[in-house]
Amino acid sequence: MMACVRTQVGIVGAGPAGLLLAHLLHREGVDAVVLEARSREYVEMRVRAGVLEQTSVELLREAGVADRLDREGLVHEGISLRFDATDHRIAFTELTGRSITVYGQQEVVKDLIAERIAAGAPIEFEVADVAVHDLTGDAPRITYTDATGRGQELTCDVIAGCDGFHGVTRDAIPAGALTVYEHVYPFAWLGILAEAPPSHEELIYAYHERGFALHSMRSPRITRLYLQVAPDESIERWPDERIWEELHRRLAADGFSLTEGPVLEKVITGMRSFVVEPMRHGRLFLAGDAAHIVPPTGAKGMNLALADVRRLAGAVTDFLRHGRVDGLDAYSDACLRRVWRAEHFSWWMTSMLHRAEGDDAFQRRLQLSQLRYTATSPAAATSLAENYVGLPFDAT
Ligand code: FAD
Ligand code: DHB
C-alpha cells in the first residue's frame, strides 16, 4: 500500500538549487520534503562547479551557511586571459570592487545537507520512479519509491523541480506549454582534478591554436584543469600522459610552469546552451539546470541555480503565509532576465576562447581582436568583470 504524506513544498533534487531552497524555506518556517535519486555519498562526492560569484557568497552568508565557505574558500580578485603565450589580467576588484570565491560545488552541497540533517528536516536519498501529478490543480502530488522499496505519495501546495538537466519534472510539462531555446557547441570539456598545488594564484583562461584550456583549483593542494576536446571524444583516448602533454602545450607562457600530480578524477562534459520558457507550469516551478543550461566557460551554472531559488523561496513564502500570488506570477520572467544575461555571457566567453573544427583564419583574427580589446580596454574588461563576479540580483 502507498503511504501518503502532506507537505507544503515538494522539492525534487538535492543539488545546489533544491538544497538551498529547502534551507531558505526552513528559515521561514515553511515545511518541505527533499527527494534525491542518488545517495548522500554520491552527491557529496560529485565534482562539478568551483566558482561562486560574490552575489552567491553573500546569499549563502545571509542564509547562515557560509562558515566553512568563509574559512576555506579562496577569494580571487581577478583572472588571467592567456593568449599569444602571455597573460592579460582582468582585475575584477579594481574594476568592479567585487571578487569571486573558489569553493567546490560539492562543498556547498555538503554544507547544506549537514545543515538540513542537523535541523531534523526531511530529506530522502536513493528514491526512484519520481513522477509529478495534478500540476494545474491546487494540490499537486509527487509519487515515488523510497529507499526501502516502498511506494510513497506526497501531496503539496507547490512543487519545485530542482532535478537538473536530466530530471523528470520538466518533461512532465505538456510540450505545447513550453518554448525551448537551444544551442549545442561543436566541442566538449575534459576536466581533471589533480593532486598538485595550483601553478598560478588565479584562474587562467587560455586561448590556443590547438583549443581552449583552463587552469583552476580547489585548494592549495588540488588543481582543477580543463581541455577543449571533440564533442564525441571518449575518455579512453585520453590517458593521463596525453592530458598533461596537451595541457603543457596549451597553457605554455613565458615564466609559467605547470605542476603535475596524480589525476584523482577525469570526466568529459558536453557543452550546450538551453532555456525553457516559462519556468513554471501551474504549481510546478523549475529552478537551476532543470530550466536552463549554460556552457561552463563563464562559470555561471551553479550561480544561476542559487539565484533562482533565492527568488522562489521568497515567492513561495509570501504565497503560503499571506496568500499572495504576485511573487509566484513574477518568478519566471524575473529569473529569465538574469538567465538570459548569463546565457549571453557564457556564449560570448565560449565563442571568444574556443577553436571549432572548420574555423577559418578570419574567425581566428576576430577572436584575437576581441581578446586584445578585452585585455586592453578598461570598458571591455569591466564588462567581462561585472558579468563574471555577478550582477546585482535586480540589475537585469
Ligand atoms: P544539479 O546539481 O544537477 O542537481 C540536481 C539533482 O537532482 C541531482 O542531485 C540529481 O541526482 C537529482 N535528480 C535528477 N533526477 C532526479 C529524479 N528523477 N528524482 C530525484 N532526484 C533527481 N557552474 C558554476 O556556477 N560555476 C562553475 O565553475 C561551473 N563549472 C562546471 C563544470 C562542469 C564540468 C560541470 C558539469 C558543470 C559546471 N557548472 C558550473 C554547472 C553547475 O554544476 C550546475 O549548473 C549546477 O549543478 C546546477 O545545480 P542544480 O541544483 O540546478 O542541478
Ligand atoms: C571552474 C569551472 C568553470 O566552468 C570555470 O569557468 C571556472 C572554473 C572550476 O571547476 O574550477
Question: Could you explain the architecture of this structure?
Answer:
- This protein is of the alpha/beta class and 396 residues long.
- It has eleven helices and 21 strands.
- The strands form four sheets. The chain has an eight-stranded mixed β-sheet.
- Helix 1 (16-27) links the parallel strand 2 (9-12) and strand 3.
- Helix 1 (16-27) runs parallel beside helix 8 (301-322), helix 8 (301-322) packs antiparallel against helix 9 (326-353) and helix 10 (361-376) crosses helix 11 (378-389).
- The chain is globular, with a radius of gyration of 21 Å.
- The model has no long low-confidence stretch (mean pLDDT 97).
- The chain binds flavin-adenine dinucleotide and 3,4-dihydroxybenzoic acid (DHB).
- The site of 3,4-dihydroxybenzoic acid has 10 residues, from strand 16.
Summarize the structure.
The chain is α/β, with parallel strands linked by helices. 3,4-dihydroxybenzoic acid binds next to strand 16.
Which labels suit this protein?
396 residues, 8-stranded mixed β-sheet, globular, binds flavin-adenine dinucleotide
Write the layout of secondary structure elements.
Elements: E1 3-6, E2 9-12, H1 16-27, E3 32-35, H2 40-45, E4 51-52, H3 54-62, H4 67-72, E5 74-76, E6 79-83, E7 86-90, H5 92-96, E8 100-102, H6 105-118, E9 123-124, E10 128-133, E11 141-145, E12 151-155, E13 158-161, E14 179-194, E15 204-206, E16 213-219, E17 222-229, H7 240-251, E18 263-277, E19 280-281, E20 284-286, E21 292-293, H8 301-322, H9 326-353, H10 361-376, H11 378-389
Parallel strand pairs: 1-12, 2-3, 2-13, 3-9, 6-15, 13-20
Antiparallel strand pairs: 4-8, 5-8, 6-7, 10-11, 11-12, 14-17, 14-18, 15-16, 16-17, 18-21, 19-20
